[in-house]
Every structure is written in structure tokens, then in C-alpha cells.
Amino acid sequence: MSRILDQRILLLVISFSASVQSTKVLSEWKKCGDPECEKAISRVQATTDYLGPDCRYLNFKTGEEIMVYSKLSRENENLWTGSKGKDFGYFPRDAVKVEEVFIGEEVEVLTKETDFLCLHEDKYVFE
């Protein structure tokens, strides 16, 4: 009986640590095309295949086009946020090249906790 309880506690700890990792704040600040981060900043093209480490990241293949909506700033400037079709997420800026710039002057705003949750089929996934 004690062994089963130990296994359940271990599974609970593993589940909790995975949940904390998937909601980890990647940056306190981001740059957007407008204060609400609703306007696309630019259109980029993937220069390499990319498979992100978790559901918050956008996966793509070389040559695919991505619309960029925000760029993390200050402590983590390498990650941008964008969409490809219905998929949305973070990706490294060095995996793409800028094809077209829509907004020349970006606005820096604070990130929100919801910026770092997984979005699947128009709904947030809470792990």
C-alpha cells in the first residue's frame, strides 16, 4: 500500500513540474506593432526546419511563411511569436528571414501570464 502511495506522489510531482515548466515566463517584456499586440509586425520565411521543445512553440519546415505578432525583449530577445495557418507560438528569430515589414516602429509592453500558455484549436490548454 505504501509503495502505491509513493508512486502516486512521484507521478504528482512529475506532473506538477511539467506544468510549471510549460507556463514558465520566457520574458517580462515584448515588442509589438500596437499596444494590444493584434497587428502583424512582419511576414517571415523559415530558413530551417524547427521543432519546438513544448506546445508553446511554433513548429515549421524550411520555406513556410509565418506572420510575426510580437518579439520578446530584454532578457530573451531571440524568441518571436507568430502564426502559420491556425498554429501559433514562439520560434527563434535566427530560424527565419524577414520577407516583408508591416510596422516600422514597435511598442514595448509587459507580457501577461496568458502569453505563455499553450493554445490548441482556439482554446487554452492548462496542464
TrEMBL record:
Residues 1-22 form the signal peptide. GO terms for biological process: endoplasmic reticulum to Golgi vesicle-mediated transport; protein secretion; vesicle cargo loading. It comes from the Eukaryota. Gene3D superfamilies: SH3 Domains. Keywords: Coiled coil, Endoplasmic reticulum, Glycoprotein, Membrane, SH3 domain, Signal, Transmembrane, Transmembrane helix. It holds the Pfam family SH3_2. It is a single-pass membrane protein. Residues 39-101 form the SH3 domain. It is found in: Endoplasmic reticulum membrane. The keyword Aminoacyl-tRNA synthetase does not apply. InterPro entries: cTAGE_MIA/OTOR, SH3-like_dom_sf, SH3_domain. One of its GO terms (cellular component) is endoplasmic reticulum exit site. Belongs to the MIA/OTOR family. Interacts with MIA3. Interacts with the COPII coat subunits SEC23A, SEC23B and maybe SEC24C. Interacts with PREB; recruits PREB to endoplasmic reticulum exit sites. Interacts with APOB. Plays a role in the transport of cargos that are too large to fit into COPII-coated vesicles and require specific mechanisms to be incorporated into membrane-bound carriers and exported from the endoplasmic reticulum. Plays a role in the secretion of lipoproteins, pre-chylomicrons and pre-VLDLs, by participating in their export from the endoplasmic reticulum. Thereby, may play a role in cholesterol and triglyceride homeostasis. Required for collagen VII (COL7A1) secretion by loading COL7A1 into transport carriers and recruiting PREB/SEC12 at the endoplasmic reticulum exit sites. This is Melanoma inhibitory activity protein 2. The gene is Mia2.
